[in-house]
Design goal:
The protein is mainly β. It has a domain of about 45 residues. A three-stranded antiparallel sheet has the order 2-1-3, with no helix packed on it. It is elongated. Zinc ion binds next to loops.
Length: about 70
């Protein structure tokens, strides 16, 4: 899973989260103030990495409710 950098719009706190690519634009709470007013900034991981060469990692999804 790639790392994504976020910045809080409320307290200007910058933080990094390890997230699935499909979740990278989903709202995320600031760990400092709990605000969801966060913006994703360009991750250093993503720069220079060809996304087309990303291996398709399909982890076995087990439902927590089963
Ligand atoms: Zn914040």
């Amino acid at each position: 899973m790639p790392l994504y950098d976020y910045q809080c719009q409320q307290c200007s706190n910058g933080f990094t989260e390890l997230r699935r690519m499909c979740e990278m634009d989903a709202p995320i709470e600031c760990p400092e103030c709990g605000s969801r007013e966060t913006l994703r900034s360009v991750s250093s991981f993503a720069v220079g990495v060809a996304t087309s060469s990303m291996p398709s990692v399909s982890a076995p999804s087990r439902s927590p409710f089963s």
